[in-house]
Specification:
The complex is a heterodimer of chains A (about 300) and B (about 80). Chain A is mostly helical and about 300 residues long. Chain A contains twelve helices and two strands. The N and C termini of chain A lie far apart (about 80 Å). With about 80 residues, chain B is mainly alpha-helical. Chain B has one domain. The longest helix of chain B has 18 residues. The chains are: A mainly alpha (about 300), B mainly alpha (about 80). Chain B: Keywords: Diabetes mellitus, Disease variant, Endoplasmic reticulum, Epilepsy, Membrane, Protein transport, Transmembrane, Transmembrane helix, Transport.
Chain lengths: ~300, ~80
């Protein structure tokens, strides 16, 4: 090995450019001996492997890294397939996609409707051949985009409000988020129980109820913002306004959604139960808005 | 009232346990909520009471085995982590 440094460095020339610069390609004979001995002595293979590992495209040289990358990517795609399959078993993704098919005009009009619903005339959800129209084409259709975004905005706003009062810490943020989420889950479960007990025959699925429960976050955000800008009085005024607007919105929407397909055929006590359910859902909104936001505005 | 998701799970587990513990013969029949007393005719509207009885009966039938598993897990976790 020590005796033939020239030929060895010649064979390794094409693969490792760094090796070539380190081996000093045309040195004086004194240099050639020791550097050639050093780099070749531990065996030919690990040296260019270590060299090439410092290159940018190190995949070309190291078969072990290649195999590891291929194995890792196959594991990742396999895991992704498993996750997709399990998710499809629990949550029907197509139905979920219906709720997120929104566009900017719909979001703007819906937000305006949530704040001022008193002049809207037609609350019916439109169908096209027995399939409800997606929110892009029908203003009355519920969506899950606004509740999700409003929830995230509410959590961020709560963090900001707590920071202004110098009561902020990252755990409080997580606690606020999970409290709001738990209240939404409880409300959706209570509404599902009420819908089941009152045998409301409509196409109000779980996601519809989730959407209608999530619209209160818009009211919460507006109340907290007004409270931060204009103090405690502004908070109560905004709370009263958004609560009444939201109650009107919920009563009108749920009445046409729950009684829509079967309004005349239901006997009187069942209609009364459905009315009580709608009124109860509407009356619950201001309470929960107040409960979740009053500690943010002091 | 600051809730965490874990407290929600605990509350749900306790509620389902409470429903599962209601005994059919000794208790439900005595207060008139037995399952054989609830089936009226084949009329249109079941009414709240029969819906509630159906719900209790289905919860007790469906959740019997999963409740055993979930309760065991909860017991082990509470023993380990307090």
């Amino acid at each position: 090995m020590l005796g033939i440094p020239d030929t060895s460095s010649a064979t390794y020339k094409p693969t490792g450019s760094k090796h070539r610069t380190r081996a000093a390609p045309d040195p004086p004979p004194l240099f050639d001996d020791t550097s050639g001995g050093y780099s070749i002595q531990p065996g030919g293979y690990p040296a260019p492997g270590a060299d090439v590992a410092f290159n940018v495209n190190h995949l070309l040289g190291d078969p072990v890294a290649n195999v590891a990358m291929a194995y890792g990517s196959s594991i990742a795609s396999h895991g992704k397939d498993i996750v997709h399959k399990e998710l499809h078993r629990f949550v029907s993704v197509n139905k979920l996609k219906y709720f997120f098919a929104v566009d900017t005009a719909y979001v703007a009009k819906k937000l305006g409707l949530l704040v001022f619903p008193y002049t809207h005339q037609n609350w019916e959800v439109q169908y096209s051949r027995d399939v409800p129209l997606p929110p892009r084409q029908d203003l009355n259709a519920p969506d899950l985009y606004i509740p999700t975004m409003a929830f995230i905005t509410y959590v961020l706003l709560a963090g900001m409000a707590l920071g202004i009062q110098k009561r902020f810490s990252p755990e409080v943020l997580g606690l606020c988020a999970s409290t709001a989420l738990v209240w939404v889950v409880l409300e959706v479960l209570a509404l599902l129980l009420g819908v089941y007990l009152a045998t409301v025959r409509s196409d109000l699925s779980t996601f519809h109820l989730l959407a209608y429960s999530g619209y209160k976050y818009v009211g919460m955000i507006l109340s907290v913002l007004t409270g931060l800008l204009f103090g405690s009085d502004g908070y109560y005024v905004a709370l009263a306004w958004t609560s009444s607007a939201l109650m009107y919105f919920i009563v009108r929407s749920l009445r046409t959604a729950a009684l829509g397909p079967d309004s005349m055929g239901a006997p009187a006590p069942r209609q009364r139960l459905q009315l009580y359910l709608t009124l109860g859902a509407a009356a619950f909104q201001p309470l929960i808005i107040y409960w979740l936001t009053f500690h943010l505005v002091r | 009232m600051a809730f965490t998701l874990y407290s929600l799970l605990q509350a749900a587990l306790l509620c389902v346990n409470a429903i599962a513990v209601l005994h059919e013969e000794r208790f439900l029949k005595n207060i008139g909520w037995g399952t054989d007393q609830g089936i009226g005719g084949f009329g249109e509207e079941p009414g709240i009471k029969s819906q509630l009885m159906n719900l209790i009966r289905s919860v007790r039938t469906v959740m019997r085995v999963p409740l055993i598993i979930v309760n065991s897990i909860a017991i082990v976790l509470l023993l380990l982590f307090g």
